[in-house]
Design goal:
With 118 residues, the protein is an alpha+beta fold. The protein contains four helices and five strands. The protein has one domain: Zincin-like, CATH 3.30.2010.
């Protein structure tokens, strides 16, 4: 389901942090997504992915409803960094043994766009 609350967070961060450089993409809420075998989807707060080649942000509402708003903003920002990296051809993660790891390039992208810590 498309979630306009998270879209508003995306727009605010896009304006303030990314200085209007990221095209708007849909932000959907989810409560259960198929993840790799052995991965507990209930632990996933969010994901940047593509649906039929279109980029989207997925936000786990059931997970975040137990967290403060600042945490939710941070999750949206985290996924926006993945989006930024994808747009700029930056390889920011590695997938080893079914687990995704953030590379140094992800950390560099965070520093480039301004670290927000909630």
């Amino acid at each position: 389901m498309r979630n306009y609350f998270f879209t508003d967070i995306f727009l605010a961060l896009e304006t303030v942090v990314f200085r209007n450089t990221l095209p708007l993409i849909p932000v959907y809420s989810f409560s259960d997504v198929k993840f790799p075998k052995g991965y507990d989807a209930s632990l996933a707060a969010g994901a940047y992915t593509t649906i039929e080649t279109d980029p989207v942000l997925l936000i786990n509402v059931e997970y975040l409803c137990r967290k403060p708003l600042e945490y939710t903003i941070n999750i949206v920002y985290h996924e926006m960094i993945h989006y930024f990296c994808d747009l700029n051809g930056i390889h920011d993660t590695d997938n080893r043994n079914g687990y995704t790891y953030h590379r140094k390039e992800f950390k560099d992208a965070v520093k480039e766009n301004g670290e927000i810590c909630c």
